[in-house]
């Protein structure tokens, strides 16, 4: 029997989000910033039990790439998107599977018996979110899983690949294997910068993958962190940073590199290496404050909409607009979720 042919293949750290509101005291207690994403250090480890015992927790399927994959699955026909990452054999993984099924996302998890599935504490304060991640099983992903009988045919059949920057903290070899394969076959490989600490502290890993990337997605804080880490003269200039990334060395020269930076309710910037001096700026229609429920996952929703439109054969302008629609939908719901019954995006 032939393996299913999913057009979009996504890789990342599968996490279950533990989300709480009005977390000002938690920011102070655990020395967190209001609009940030970090890996948990020893001092942060008690936060997960703290949330469960002392706060009203909303459990939401998370993990940046998995969120984006669910977003892409939402806008595309059934059986279009598949995702892989490493989970434990526990009820957290079962909750992730249920959420993926609802959105139509297929997963091919590597399951580590005896391990706990990764978790992310999501501390909401107003419209800001602070993410504190303990990777657990997620960082035990093995490159050999990519060549396994259940995954290798899916990689061969896919047309577009997407990975979160967070995966660079432990899985650079796996990303390089897939990105080099995609580049050699003139398929599309997309990477999300994911968080400021990736270009700051995993610059070498990021730079090793960059030559194989056709699409880079990030937000204004990640762009600034990249500019500072690589010594660009205007760290806050999104267009200049996008151009610098767009024109940096690229292995597959048959297709341009496209860099997209979102900026919340501000304009989205797109620069293509085909026309590096002709940046496109897309206006965003801000959601009224009283309609914003939660900004957690909005960037992933944008990426999901963008990728879904790309897989569907839309032009870049339409891809950005699809991303905006998905991001707007996401901020009006709790966590990285989408409206049901389905809203037509494309």
Automatic annotation (TrEMBL):
Pathway noted in the entry: Purine metabolism; AMP biosynthesis via salvage pathway; AMP from adenosine: step 1/1
Catalytic activity annotation: adenosine + ATP = AMP + ADP + H(+)
The protein's required cofactors: Mg(2+)
Membrane spanning stretches: none
SUPFAM superfamilies, sorted: Ribokinase-like (SSF53613)
A Pfam family this chain is assigned to: PfkB
EC number: 2.7.1.20
Active-site residue numbers: 300
Carbohydrate kinase PfkB domain: residues covered: 27-342
UniProt keywords, alphabetically: ATP-binding, Kinase, Magnesium, Nucleotide-binding, Purine salvage, Transferase
Single GO BP term: purine nucleobase metabolic process
GO cellular component: cytosol; nucleus
Enzyme's top EC category: transferase
GO molecular function list: adenosine kinase activity; ATP binding
Annotated family: Belongs to the carbohydrate kinase PfkB family.
Role this protein plays: ATP dependent phosphorylation of adenosine and other related nucleoside analogs to monophosphate derivatives.
PANTHER family tied to this protein: ADENOSINE KINASE (PTHR45769)
Protein name as annotated: Adenosine kinase
């Amino acid at each position: 029997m032939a393996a299913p042919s999913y057009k979009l293949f996504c890789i990342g750290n599968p996490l279950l989000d533990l989300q709480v509101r009005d977390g000002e005291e938690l920011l102070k207690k655990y020395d967190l910033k209001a609009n940030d994403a970090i890996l948990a250090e020893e001092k942060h480890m008690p936060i997960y039990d703290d949330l469960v015992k002392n706060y009203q927790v909303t459990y939401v399927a998370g993990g940046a790439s998995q969120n984006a994959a669910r977003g892409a699955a939402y806008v595309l026909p059934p059986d279009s998107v598949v995702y892989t990452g490493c989970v434990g054999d526990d009820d957290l993984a079962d909750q992730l599977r249920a959420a993926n099924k609802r959105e139509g996302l297929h997963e091919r998890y590597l399951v580590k018996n005896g391990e706990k599935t990764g978790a992310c504490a999501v501390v909401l304060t107003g419209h800001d979110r602070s993410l504190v991640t303990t990777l657990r099983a997620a960082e035990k992903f093995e490159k050999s899983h990519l060549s396994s009988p259940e995954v290798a045919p899916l990689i061969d059949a896919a047309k577009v690949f997407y990975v979160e920057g967070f995966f660079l903290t432990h899985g650079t070899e796996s990303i390089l294997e897939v990105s080099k394969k995609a580049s050699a076959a003139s398929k599309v490989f997309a990477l999300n910068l994911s968080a400021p600490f990736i270009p700051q502290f995993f610059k070498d890993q990021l730079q090793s993958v960059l030559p194989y990337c056709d699409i880079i997605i990030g937000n204004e804080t990640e762009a600034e962190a990249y500019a500072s880490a690589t010594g660009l003269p205007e760290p806050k200039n999104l267009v200049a940073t996008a151009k610098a990334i767009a024109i940096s060395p690229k292995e597959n020269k048959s297709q341009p590199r496209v860099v997209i930076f979102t900026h919340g309710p501000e304009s989205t910037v797109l620069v293509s290496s085909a026309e590096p001096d002709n940046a496109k700026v897309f206006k965003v229609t801000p959601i009224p404050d009283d309609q914003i429920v939660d900004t957690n996952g909005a960037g992933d929703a944008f990426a999901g909409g963008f990728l879904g439109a790309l897989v569907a054969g839309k032009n870049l302008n339409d891809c950005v607009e699809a991303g905006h629609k998905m991001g707007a939908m996401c901020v009006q719901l709790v966590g990285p979720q989408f409206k049901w019954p389905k809203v037509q995006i494309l």
